[in-house]
Fold each of these.
Amino acid sequence: MRYLTARFGHLLVVLFAVTFLTFMLVNVLPGDVAYDMAGLDASEEEVEAIREEIGLNRPALLRYVEWLGGILTGDWGKSFITSEPVWDAIKTRFPVSLELVIVAQIMALLLALPLGIISALRVNSRFDRVVAVGGFFCLSVPNFMMAIILIYVFGLWLNWLPVTGYEPLSEGLWANLRNFILPSASFALAEWTILARVLRSDMIGVLQEDYISMARAKGMPVRRILWVHALRPSSFSLITIFGLQVGALIGGSIIIESIFALPGVGRLLIQAIFLRDFMVIQGCVTFIAMAYVVINFSIDICYALLDPRIRVARSHG
Amino acid sequence: MLNKDHASIRLRRGAALVLAASLAAVAGNAQAADPVKGGTLTVGLETDVRGFDTVKGGVYGISGRTVAGALEEPLIMVTPDRKYEPHLATSWSNSDDGLTWTLKLRTGVKYHDGSDFESSDVAAHFNRILDPKNKSRSRGFMSAIKGAEAVDGNTVRFTLKHPWQAFLPTMAGRDMGGLMESQEQTASGKQNRSPIGTGPYIFQEWRGGDRIIVTKNPNYWDKDKIHLDKIIYRILPDTQTRFASLIAGDIDLIWTDRANSIHQAEKEGKVTVYKQDGGGSGLVLFNASAPPLDSKVVRNAVRHALSQEIVNKVLWKGTRYKAEHPMPFKCKDVSYPNFSTAKAKELAAQYGKPIKLQMIHTTTPRGKELGEIFQQLMKKAGMQLDLIPVDQSILVKRVFTNKYQISGWRVADALDVGPQLFGLSHSKSPYNITRLKTPELDKLSLAMRMAKTMESREQLQCDLVSMINQNGNMAFGPGNRYHILLQKNIKGMRGFTGGTAYVWYLWKDKG
């Protein structure tokens, strides 16, 4: 309980720092949203009226305090541009970003687990070397480039999958999933390499443990040894990396969501940045920071579930 | 009294606005087969819509007009060759003194919620825009209107401050408050996100940043012209993504100003490329309030040094056209200063001192490229141009606050660019951003504003542009040319105004 309380305290400090810095940085960005909103044909008076209306004439610190007060009461403000409540905008877009991350990580794990385990089992074999070379190739291609390659091959050339778009689950599972295959693969083709290499490395060590030798001596099938007895103790680093990747993907999906026109939080954020829609920028950054903190917190809990020694150590301070 | 019962007024004279070849192709396209009923059209939008309440949503861009046109309608319809035809208003007349316009409205028209469309709706709509308290962006474009009143259930009268021939273009406009929205929905504060109009399609769903879905209005007053069951507007801001989606068949129609996409589409022939010239134009501002651009000789030296043909060739890869003025009609002669490095050198020598100038431009690739082209052209003419890249909003701010020498700008496409020309020219206008103030410009711009006939208004616009070209405080061009790219089975494409494809009249051929 003490551990949870401490973590919650950290969470609040991180969120305060992130929101404060974002608010101040956005305010010193060059440009003036009032001019953007007014357009080229507006007079100075109209621009001034807009500035007054959206509160830009008041000190940034005062506006931050007001914004913070709003957040604490559930009011995330409204978009300067579309008048859409920021929380509504995030709420409708987050499921898209979440699904993108989940499908991407499932794809990455589906590649990383078998390839990492087999590579650990056949260290320095031809298979191991091919996986290593293939993995480093995937890792070296930036995900936006991977996205363009995938669009060209599977969207424009083979015409198997849609290039852009999003259908909610209510339109059917396949209608929904087919739009996520290419964007998720753009992430997964880079992410799996790190997961597979970490797993391989940890598993090589675990496979040399006495209890594994004992299992082998008893004639236990290799598949059972690997999946039941070796995988769990080999997955601590994997889970850490996995957690970091999930957090990074939520914040880092800006480019992929833009390329594939997925209406997620990343695309909302990038559009808000271009339009200097401060309230939306602030809301998105706060939300992404919260997601990071919650994910890291969840990873800590996962450690405790996987290894009782950690649970005991933390409960004793 | 100019009675309007005998069909529409022909406001434009001279050559056709629309590219003849494109129109011929389109006419053939539209007439080739009987329209097919049903189906869904998917349109790629470059931006999300800000909202559908005229006051809250501001002024529509192309995306807004393309969506709003399916839901809300203007009182008067303008044809591609600029004839004004009845729409929600069936006839109109202007009083002899030019100060009153009276419009008869179509009876039996209903809003999507089943309520009747009446003259009180029209009066309330325009009075709301005109009320300074509401700070409507559309107000500036129709400030010549004093107010509107409902005479009876289907007659509405507009009172003007002065004779104003821009009245009809304003009523036919699709971006300046000309679209009729439900007053009930507006009063409840819901119109901005859940619009109700009288249009051929009914608003169904708006997934912010993703799509807007509209479905066919079964009670539409002109239902024979409407064929599709549904239109899905997908928001695809990235130009490459939008084009790739069209080529992959994910969407049916886009518009683009990216020369590479246009040329690729024309070369490959997988989709139809529909072209149409519009009004408005690119614009370069020369600040005449401080040396050395307060000198007419210097301004003209710079004007002769610049070439819109080169800008079109390099920056737009030939996808625009040479425009000597921004009006959507032809003028006989507007004293356009043609590109001549020799003339520029001669004028620069006449000035007698080295000419060093600064140009602010946006940080976008196009902004940078425009600055670099100008820099090279001026260098050839012996003048120095330093480039200052700034953010778009900073550029606007510097222009309005008089902190620039040369800047890129534009004259927005409109059925009547008169209000913009007036703003740019009259000494008392806050929009006189080149700060050139002369009694001649004032006199001419006022005469244009208060012209009693459209013919004289157009002639005075030509005269005004001619005077601007002689003064050298602005450089017009290149002209706007719109490119709509659509799948081959999409039929019924017709000419349009303001770059806005009338997608609600299209149909989808099953073949």
Amino acid sequence: MSLPRPAALAVLLALAAPAFAADPDEMLKDPALEARAHALGKELRCLVCQSESIEDSNADLAKDLRVIVREHIAAGESESQIKKYVVDRYGDYVLLRPPVKASTLVLWLGPFALLLTALGAAWLVFRRRGGQPAAPPLTAEEQRRLDVLLKDQAK
Amino acid sequence: MIAELGHFALILALAVALVQATLPMVGAARNQRQWMAVAGPASAAQFLFIAVAFAALTHAYVTSDFSVLNVAQNSHTDKPMLYKVAGVWGNHEGSLLLWITILALFGLAVSVLGRNLPPGLKARALGVQAMISVGFLLFILLTSNPFARLDPAPFNGSGLNPLLQDPGLAFHPPLLYLGYVGFSMAYSFAIAALIEGRVDPAWARWVRPWTLAAWIFLSAGIVLGSWWAYYELGWGGWWYWDPVENASFMPWLAGTALLHSAAVVEKRDALKSWTILLAIVAFGFSLLGTFLVRSGVLTSVHAFATDPARGAFILLLLVVSIGGSFSLYAARAPWLKMGGMFAPVSREGALLFNNVLMATGAGTVLLGTLYPLFADALSLGKVSVGPPFFNSVFLPLMVPMVVAMGIGPMLAWKRGDLAGALLRLKLSMLLALAAAAATWMLQGGSAGPWWAAGGMGLAVWLALGTLAEWAERVRLFRAPLAGLPHRIAVLPRSAWGMTLTHFGLAVFIAGMTASSAWKSESVQTQKIGETVTVAGYAFTLTDAHEVAGPNYSALEGTFTVAKDGRPFAVMRPEKRAYRQPPRPTTEAAIHGTVLGDVYAVIGDADGKGGYVTRLYFNPLVPWMWAGAAMMVLGGLVSLSDRRHRIGAPQRARAKA
Amino acid sequence: MRRSLYLLPVALFLVLAGFLLGGLFLNPRDIPSVLIDRPVPEMNLPALAGRPADSGLASADLKGRVSLVNIFGSWCISCADEHPTLMRIKAQGVVPIHGIDWRDDPAKALAWLQRNGDPYDRVGVDPAPGRTSIDFGVTGAPESFIVDKAGVIRYKHVGPITPKVWEATLLPIIVELNK
């Protein structure tokens, strides 16, 4: 990132411009197809922007990609065919939902590993306490007597 | 002159902070009272000097002193006064100054409000606070001096990014920083406790209100930012899982977990080393956020001047403070006395479960946010991790948490009765299932997204579960009705706080689900007089003309909106063109109803008498804001609890 | 076992800090092209009006000789910065430069070339939505591709070609491919 300052500033300003969805003239007439195109566009990253999807960006390239995605949708292609079209040109980087493959296994499995680790750690908290079996819960009668006792104590 | 004074005051503050970071620590180690007592006046002096510096920069902004580089780069004489002041923190250097001002303010608060703290703990906590100050003062003075001069001074400044010229965004950063920096309190107390080797309920009583205050500020700051995005960015989005948003969300998750585990320490003297760890992690996330926003290691839509040299400095701070703390933790935590015992099914168990999921959630957000960096560093290629990932991994993790939130408060401390709790919740359960089924029917089955029914069901479950717990506390149906007002009146405020916050989350979940699932939108070119109907609202564009603002000109459209043939509202969205710097912004017109927001945006003229208009109906969005407001309010109510009142613990203990 | 559990946070943190340190030396906006070592995309772009009618750009034109394909536009500020270097490369005569005029008004493009000099052998016009440029995986102008004799893309440069980039990076690759 060694842009000279004014250039960096200009880039930032251009990138932070208010984001817009598709213009009316780009949109497909059929609402069902348009909804599919919109959902797909939400998963594709605008390359000149920072972390926006092409549906959220007003950059020219994002607009072009929106138009092309809609052409492919209108031509009856499936989502995965269109994703392949874009990935063939821009690589996995363009996918906001990273594909599951060897290089993203840690990303996709990580949260579950974390959950298991955390649950395991919590389990240790109990086991560490000498494996004492949890006493059975109080019966209703015991609970009532306890409440009475506690109430007296609180007075 | 005044700018130099500010600069000088910062240097003095650094000197004072150095003293405060050393003498009281040494004093506490040798048990020398006088040395420990230095911490109090030092924190006052430190605050004073930093406040002088802050006032000096504010003065430069208010008087538009363009001989100060920072002012020239970020301000303009035409700017309304509010944004001249907000401009102080609308840039890297000034926001750092705000950061340390708040840090010094918290230090002052400890020394003033903490008269009853054990002297050793107080001296050490203030010493740790001062160490953080030293780090950040060095950072400011060495890499980011806000008082640098510009010679010759320009005739006028380059102005503030118009997106930032908004009341919502003017107060978003200070609130966020109050939250981030607020977690430094729990952190300092955690380090002090590790040094002392003792964590007890009195410690937790001290830490809880500070953590709660930080949590309130951070929550309010995040919501304000979301709300701003919702009305300013012009298409009704409010959360993007952008790295910078995640940077504020991670400390929030860790802070929420900390809040709950500190309760266990206070009430039951258990989960001590875990709570200490969370206190370090929560503040660590705050520092990490600072690093991510200012170093440029990740790409984000949020503009902040990034600079690798500054990044390296913050990284160094992060390694020294958090790395050092974790090392201290590894050395000392094993020797912390084991606390109270509890069964897995118990209030503590439920809070621990909440903590597990919160921690996993924070870890997931961290992993997703940094994965592009990990992959790049390991040459696995460039990947993007965007909203689809977070939505499909993070949200499911929160489902069991919300389910547990309904049950946990029903369980007794130490050991609970799960079957009994579920039995008492059976009505909530049935109604939640009914709500899910009703949602499914109403949206026409698979015509709407499949998760909508689940989201609404969860919201109903949590709302009713929370109300059921409240009803039990006041013995709504199980004791004579005559005593009810009294029982409600004596309910502790911390209990009210929990009820409000959990109920608020339920309302928020309903709003979030509905607005994501059933938003209606229509984008078209509209001529004057044409009507477009969205979700039953007929928008007629009746007028569009240029209006002039103080530092912008705008195209203002007028929509007359009718519902069922009756007039509903007149809405006036604007598309503004700011002059300095020249940038467009959209000002959506929003008319809220109980069931949702009617939302209109006007875009460019097409040159043939038409205007691009974007019209939306965003269902239950006001519920999101109302839910979030309830959560913040719940925090405030809880904070006002007598038992939380700062300084109370010692007195309360003395009485007992 | 228990003691080592307490070391976990600091261990994880150090790994994280290592990555963050590494991150300071990486550029997140530097996206490698997936087209390297792939044949140039199928294209048959018409010539820029005002230049010879047969000077459009097709895939077949890129076979038989090492060439430099440059995506540009008269609207693009960095392209103007790069232009003098392209003129010098043309004068050197080591490699033909072909242009893809991306998302541009042809009349403005012609005027721009007449004003600043025309370094291109062939110029294909690629109006919005810029299908051919997208086939090249364009992210912005200017971008340049080195294509070998077999019509395979061998290198991509993003941003303006400076004299330094030309001397240190592009020219050696071209010399190597010409062997």
